[in-house]
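Q: Convert this sequence to structure tokens.
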Amino acid sequence: MASAAMSSPVMLSAAAPPATGKSSPIKLGLASYTFRNFSRAQMIGYMKQLNVSGLNAKDVKDHLPTDPTQEKQAITDYTAADIKLHAAGAIYFLKDEDDDIRAKFEYCKRAGVTVIVAGDPTPASLPRVEKFVKEYGIRIAIHNHGPEDKLWQSPLDILKLVKNMDPRIGCCIDVGHTERAGTDVVEAIHEVGPRLFNMHMKDLADLKVKESQVAVGDGKMPVRAIFEALIANKYEGFVDLEYEIHADDPMPGVSSSFAYMRGVLAGMGYAIHA
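A:
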């Protein structure tokens, strides 16, 4: 798949996307976990180099601290750099308690995000989480974590339990974990439909092996088919690159990944924006 899609548009610089064609309906963003070993200031600098302005921020390093004062400073820094927080997470809902859940929603409300990427809320806690979704108007996107996850291996596992809940409770599809769970990611996008609120993009040299992660475009992930499915479903969220390897030197792979994704979109006839 990667070799077939590799053409001159794919080789475009990540910092200089093409400005021709109709506007891309796919919004590319970054999961801050990619730069987990780097400070907020360093990450902002890298995002400027990448020409990426959409951020899914996590409480790692100083990216989006849970302390209100420190969080306020982070938001100020992002605003000054024209970086827009569209999601926060993954945030883990490990307690079925009002105070714990409310604190997480307050954290995201202060950040102004519209989507909480949630890691492993228990099925029993979902009614309580739903109560806060209704109160705050912030969507919950439960993140699947593949075959190792006891609860949410595939987006389809999530859909089974949330399909009759408030429509603001849905999925964050992690494409790598989805494939490793034995679920076709393109089919999952169509199945989840309007309950898809966030995407974590990565690539694998072997779609069954977690440790085979590579830069997007160097593996077997059907990137173009994923984009086509998202467009067909009128997906309005972000596709956030989550590059989990080479944590001490991620920029080569991150830059290559954005260049590839932009090249695929350009090959589909779209102009590219951050």
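The two ends are 24 Å apart (CA to CA).
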